[in-house]
Amino acid sequence: MKILEDRIRQDGTVLPGNVLKVDNFLNHQIDPQLMDQMGAEFARQFADQGITKVLTVESSGIAPAVMAGLHLQVPVIFARKHKSLTLTDNLYTAKVYSYTKQVSNDISIDRRFLDADDRVLIIDDFLANGQAVQGLFDIAETAGISVAGVGVVIEKRFQKGHQMVVDAGIPLVALASIASFEDGQVVFAQD
């Protein structure tokens, strides 16, 4: 999506450690119009896949996932990172490591929200090392549901997550694909 790439060039900041900071429109302050356009694009790309639900991990994946679910007209489920008084048992769980936060979390989804006949679309804000997506793959496998595709707002193609999804045989749509960071600038895969 050219509009997303332009926004990354304009507002993104490359930080040490191959981190791209886009908190002014994606994962802290959210641009609702851009989210809507991204949700529409995910829905267009996966329109013929028979999606019954959208899955994501809290918290930064929720906004793009909700917009994709809105345009696909299906429910959105987010895996919780922290247990609450209302989410205590009968859960699907997986362990996920966050590179940017340098912490491991157990993510959980209440079993009531996934049915054996579900065909899910996984949506997330970033795909780098693929830990969040792998955690959702693990939950899908345990639940016996099929993953129709993975949609990510931004992928860092030079890290292992892209290849992990490809090797799993799951269709992958990245709205912005970064080939590298050079001299503090983003180089997109098609540049």
What is the fold's blueprint, element by element?
Layout: H1 2-11, E1 13-15, E2 19-21, H2 32-45, E3 53-57, H3 62-72, E4 76-79, E5 91-98, E6 103-110, E7 119-127, H4 131-143, E8 146-156, H5 161-167, E9 172-182, E10 185-188
Parallel strand pairs: 3-4, 3-7, 7-8, 8-9
Antiparallel strand pairs: 1-2, 5-6, 9-10
Helix pairs in contact: 2-3
Structure write-up:
This protein has helices at residues 2-11, 32-45, 62-72, 131-143, 161-167, and strands at 13-15, 19-21, 53-57, 76-79, 91-98, 103-110, 119-127, 146-156, 172-182, 185-188. It has a six-stranded mixed sheet, sandwiched between helices. Helix 2 crosses helix 3 (62-72). The protein has 191 residues and is α/β, with parallel strands linked by helices. Helix 3 (62-72) links the parallel strand 3 (53-57) and strand 4.
Structural class: alpha/beta
- What oligomeric arrangement do these chains adopt? single chain
The secondary-structure element order is HEEHEHEEEEHEHEE
DSSP strand (E) fraction? 25-35%
Distance between the termini: 13 Å
Number of helices: 5
The beta-strand count equals 10
Can I get a quick summary?
This protein has 191 residues and is of the alpha/beta class. 29% of the residues lie in helices and 35% in strands.
Question: Characteristics of this structure?
Answer:
single chain; 191 residues; alpha/beta; six-stranded mixed sheet; two-stranded antiparallel ribbon; 5 helices; 35% strand
